[in-house]
């Protein structure tokens, strides 16, 4: 733990290991831990020395200022001692004025025992750290420790550059190396003998600090308090250390493999990727963070470790209170770490497993794992055969690693539980020199997480309509929350079984399309998707078709019905009516309805249409026949079929015109109103109208009526008709029903006669070549 924290998160080191927790043990049992605890001591001594002792020493630095007699040339700097000056002049130059004078000066210097001891202490501390740094550099485990140790060396060098310390470094180096007459112990005794109460107490702390450095022990401010062992005395703290170790050990594994995307040590978050090729996914690992729960007034859940995909999907209910808005989200993987003492049982503690199962139910999660340090293995597995020094790949790491066992609901008895929830029990043992074993287990665990979270189902509608129910069956229907589903006989067709494989293969809700679909976010999870549509019941009769069409029209708000929206509604209407023709056998009789079209005025032009367009017109004739049989009054569906053929033919021709900028196609393709918009706004379409009219000057044959060759139909006349047809088509795509007379007039104007004499569709097919 010390090694990992010093390698990845030095600030957390001081917060995690208190002074007494990192106490040293001198017996042989703790000999392997001694190098790491020495590192802990060195870092704690660093904080005390550089953060407290040295700043106080430098603020009240000791010095000596003795008076001295100095012979100076004029002008002097000190105070002149005239008697001595005159006596010297009479002795050396009698009868002449003196050239030098005797002065008294105070020369302050800092070569005091206290300062010498301070500089010698900094040098000794640097030597100890440098020795440790040199020893760590020889082993692989110590390579990452060089950076934090180097910071101590650099701090010592900066302190020695203090102006009052610089002149003492050479003398102190001789003292530390043992070449001076005075040793550091004698210097320390001299300083201790001169210290008086009330003076700079930092020197007292310095002497105490030196004793701790000599023994490699922490400062012991309260000697009466016994030092507890690092592990085993407080299970809560032990568990927290085990959690930290797992978090940083996983980070170490991912960092060695180059799979870390982002590591925020302050937020305890680690973003990494796992998998190769198309299976590669990015995940977020969080330590000790609360997650949302789905139970009211229940205790919170704060997993030790939690893994989710970074592209996590969620569904919310904006109308609910903030704490209840979350409806569903992609599952995560809950990991709980337990540092218990060795147990005789081969099963994990029952209370721990029960709590994990409870946490999964509280949060709606399905995957969980318990990580134990000392759990026994009922069937021990061997380590990998590859003992080389090379870093093993994922296949080698996970080949022999697996959970000890898995707790899950019984298949036959899982009637009141989530059937696919699982709690896996793993053993991950922290031990010095066993990093490869820990990495092997953790890699296998991450592979299990990837298998559980890497593949997910698309959130879309899978609704299946139920058959007509009897009165007794209707009375007993309940939704998932237990509320009664009030279904009148007329609404039997609205009952839908709604599977939700994105939650689980077992999840199926019973809903009403007219109440829940695209209206209740708790039950309809596609409600926030752009272009989401409710399920459509396959129409078996013309009445079923009309019922489905009325539901489709009712779900299209009038304010949203622009040309693009109307075209989308028309596309769905044609798909639904074609499905009805397929079920009822109408598709097999299309040749008969095409023959009717030839007699209706399209004998010379029907073959100019493509197969899809001919089928759509034939379906319009088929739908009129079916509607007339049942005496219905809404002819919106055949109107849309006829209008869509006209729109598609205009689209095909406009897209084939060269040099158009497409500025008039805001939805990516022409619509019914495109020609009228281009004619009315030539300045907004980037010259497309002028380009189109120039093209049609040689591609529009105005005399198209074979019965009246002298009559010409201009392109402007055709555009004016398209504006009128657009209005009829948009009404048919909304709740306004189209009467039989309105449909008859529209069909005549498109396929037979009308304002363009031979029908607008015939004009388009014959004139625009």
| pLDDT averaged residue by residue | 80
User: Total strand count, please?
Assistant: 16
Separation of the first and last Cα atoms: 81 Å
Secondary-structure class: alpha+beta
Rounded radius of gyration (Å): 45 Å
Instruction: State the low-pLDDT regions, or none.
Output: 19-27, 218-233, 382-392, 394-399
Describe the global form: elongated
In terms of DSSP E residues, the strand content is 5-15%
Describe the protein's architecture and organization.
- It is a single chain.
- This protein has 25 helices and 16 strands.
- The chain is of the alpha+beta class and 769 residues long.
- The chain folds into 5 domains: 2-63 and 111-215, no CATH class; 67-106, no CATH class; 235-453, no CATH class; 457-533, no CATH class; 536-767, no CATH class.
- The model is unreliable at 19-27, 218-233, 382-392 and 394-399 (pLDDT under 50).
List the helices and strands and how they pair.
Blueprint: H1 2-8, H2 10-16, H3 34-59, E1 67-73, E2 79-80, H4 82-92, E3 100-106, H5 113-136, H6 146-160, H7 163-166, H8 169-177, H9 184-194, H10 202-215, H11 235-256, E4 260-264, E5 269-274, E6 281-287, E7 305-309, E8 314-316, E9 326-329, E10 333-338, H12 350-363, E11 367-372, H13 394-398, E12 405-407, E13 422-427, H14 435-453, E14 464-465, H15 471-475, E15 495-499, E16 508-512, H16 542-554, H17 563-584, H18 590-602, H19 611-630, H20 636-656, H21 674-680, H22 688-696, H23 715-732, H24 740-751, H25 760-767
Parallel strand pairs: 10-11, 11-13
Antiparallel strand pairs: 1-3, 2-3, 4-5, 5-6, 6-7, 7-10, 8-9, 12-13, 14-15, 15-16
Helix pairs in contact: 1-2, 3-6, 3-10, 5-6, 5-8, 5-9, 5-10, 16-17, 17-19, 17-20, 18-19, 19-20, 20-23, 20-24, 20-25
């Amino acid at each position: 733990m010390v090694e990992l924290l010093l390698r990845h998160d030095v600030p957390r080191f001081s917060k995690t290991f208190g002074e007494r927790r990192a106490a040293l043990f001198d017996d042989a049992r703790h000999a392997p831990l001694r190098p790491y605890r020495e590192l802990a001591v060195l870092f704690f001594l660093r904080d005390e020395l550089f953060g407290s002792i040295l700043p106080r020493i430098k603020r009240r630095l000791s010095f000596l200022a003795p008076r001295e007699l100095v012979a100076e040339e004029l002008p002097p700097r000190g105070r002149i001692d005239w008697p001595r000056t005159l006596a010297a002049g009479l002795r050396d130059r009698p009868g002449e004025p003196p050239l030098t004078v005797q002065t008294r000066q105070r020369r302050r210097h800092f070569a005091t025992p206290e300062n010498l001891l301070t500089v010698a202490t900094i040098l000794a501390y640097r030597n100890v750290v440098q020795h440790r740094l040199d020893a760590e550099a020889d082993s692989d485990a110590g390579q990452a420790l060089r950076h934090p140790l180097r910071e101590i060396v650099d701090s010592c060098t900066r302190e020695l550059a203090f102006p009052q310390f610089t002149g003492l470094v050479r003398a102190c180096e001789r003292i530390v190396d043992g070449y001076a007459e005075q040793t550091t112990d004698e210097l320390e005794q001299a300083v201790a003998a001169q210290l008086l109460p009330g003076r700079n107490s930092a020197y007292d702390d310095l002497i105490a600090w030196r004793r701790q450095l000599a023994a490699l022990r922490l400062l012991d401010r309260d000697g009466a308090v016994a030092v507890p062992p690092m592990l085993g005395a407080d299970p809560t703290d032990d568990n927290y250390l085990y959690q930290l170790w797992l978090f940083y050990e996983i980070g170490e594994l991912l960092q060695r493999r180059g799979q870390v995307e982002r590591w925020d040590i302050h937020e305890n978050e680690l973003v990494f990727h796992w998998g190769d090729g198309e299976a590669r996914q990015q995940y977020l690992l969080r330590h000790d963070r609360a997650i949302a729960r789905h139970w009211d007034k229940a205790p919170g859940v704060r997993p030790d470790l939690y893994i989710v995909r970074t592209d996590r999907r969620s569904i919310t209910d904006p109308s609910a209170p903030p704490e209840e808005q979350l409806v569903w989200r992609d599952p995560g993987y809950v990991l709980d770490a337990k540092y218990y003492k060795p147990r005789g049982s081969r099963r994990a503690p029952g209370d721990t497993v029960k709590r994990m199962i409870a946490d999964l139910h509280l949060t709606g999660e399905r995957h969980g794992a318990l990580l134990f340090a000392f759990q026994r293995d009922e069937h021990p597995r061997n380590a990998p055969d590859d003992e080389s020094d090379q870093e093993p790949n994922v296949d080698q790491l996970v080949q022999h690693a697996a959970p000890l066992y898995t707790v899950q609901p019984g298949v036959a008895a899982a009637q009141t539980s989530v059937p696919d929830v699982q709690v896996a029990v793993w053993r991950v043992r922290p031990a010095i020199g066993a990093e490869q074993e820990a990495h092997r287990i953790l890699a296998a665990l991450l592979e299990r997480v990837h298998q559980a979270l890497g593949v997910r189902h698309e959130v879309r509608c899978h609704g299946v309509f139920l058959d007509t129910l009897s009165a007794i069956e209707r009375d007993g229907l309940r939704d998932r929350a237990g509320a009664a589903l009030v279904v009148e006989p007329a609404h039997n067709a609205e009952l839908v079984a709604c599977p939700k494989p994105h939650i689980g293969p077992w999840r199926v809700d019973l809903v009403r399309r007219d109440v829940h679909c695209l209206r209740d976010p708790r039950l309809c999870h596609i409600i926030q998707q752009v272009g989401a549509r409710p399920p459509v019941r396959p129409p078996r009769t013309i009445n079923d078709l009309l019922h489905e069409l009325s539901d489709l029209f009712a779900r299209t708000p009038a304010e949203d019905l622009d040309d693009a929206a109307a075209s989308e509604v028309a596309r769905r209407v044609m798909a639904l009516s074609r499905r009805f023709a397929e079920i009822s056998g109408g598709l097999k009789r299309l040749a008969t309805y095409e023959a009717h079209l030839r007699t209706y005025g399209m004998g010379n032009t029907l073959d100019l249409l493509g197969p899809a367009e001919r089928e759509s017109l034939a379906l319009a004739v088929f739908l009129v026949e079916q509607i007339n049989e049942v005496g219905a009054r809404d002819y919106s569906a055949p109107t849309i079929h006829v209008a869509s053929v006209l729109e598609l033919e205009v689209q095909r021709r406009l897209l084939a015109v060269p040099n158009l900028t497409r500025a008039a196609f805001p939805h990516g393709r022409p619509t019914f109103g495109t020609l009228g918009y281009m004619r009315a706004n030539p300045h907004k379409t980037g010259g497309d109208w002028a380009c189109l009219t120039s093209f049609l000057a040689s591609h529009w044959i105005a005399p198209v009526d074979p019965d009246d060759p002298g009559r010409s139909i201009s392109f402007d006349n055709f555009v004016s008709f398209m504006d009128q047809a657009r209005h009829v088509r948009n009404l048919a795509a909304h709740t306004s029903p189209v009467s039989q007379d309105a449909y008859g007039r529209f069909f005549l104007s498109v396929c037979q006669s009308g304002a363009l004499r031979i029908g607008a569709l015939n004009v388009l097919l014959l004139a625009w070549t």
